[in-house]
Design brief:
Shape: elongated
Number of strands: 5
Strand content: 15-25%
Structural class: alpha+beta
Helix content: 55-70%
Distance between the termini: 112 Å
Strand order of the largest sheet: 1-2-3
Number of helices: 7
Length: 181
């Protein structure tokens, strides 16, 4: 009977050690979860930032400005040398889609005035030479106007039509820009 009690005590101690280990793991997981929740961006936080942005941004210390911008911006690419036209930014990548020129984009490409940079939902990036598209799809100034209107007012539709091969049909069938003589 004495061996039986020692065996039971050993098993019980083993379970206590395992229970302590599991409690430690749970505590660590709860700490990581709390940390993630503190860093989480929610709509209330963004709304509060935007509401008071113009009032407080100038009074921020440099570290606070950096933290604020890191809330919205994932990456900024710059040229090694300032460009002839004064530009030094290549692109800005946001942490979430932003509304720009009639559509939602996650990256603003600033490398070339005649290049449109876009990314589809699967993360594939496209660089579209606007002038080459005009040369291919537009035969006259009215069709070029239709392309320009679409590009600047509905860029998402522009890209969708281009990628589906239907942009030329759109331009040729859009009566808004036909020559009325």
């Amino acid at each position: 009977m004495f061996l039986h009690t020692d065996d039971l005590n050993a098993r019980l101690n083993k379970f206590y050690y395992e229970l302590d280990d599991i409690d430690s793991q749970i505590e660590e997981a709860e700490k990581r979860l709390a940390s993630v929740q503190q860093q989480k961006i929610n709509s209330d936080t963004i709304y509060k930032y935007l509401l008071y942005f113009d009032k407080y941004y100038d009074s921020f210390a440099d570290a606070e400005k950096k933290e604020f911008m890191q809330t919205f911006i994932e990456a900024i690419e710059i040229f090694e040398q300032k460009q002839d036209d004064g530009r030094f930014l290549k692109s800005i990548t946001f942490k979430f889609p932003v509304y720009f020129n009639g559509g939602y984009v996650k990256q603003l490409g600033l490398t070339d005035k005649n290049t449109l940079e876009t990314e589809d939902v699967s993360g594939i990036q496209y660089w579209i030479d606007i002038y080459a598209v005009e040369d291919e799809c537009a035969d006259n100034m009215y069709e070029r106007s239709a392309l320009d209107y679409l590009l600047y007012n509905e860029p998402v539709e522009y890209v969708n039509l281009l990628l589906s091969g239907k942009l030329r049909d759109y331009v040729q069938q859009n009566p808004i820009f036909w020559n009325i003589e």
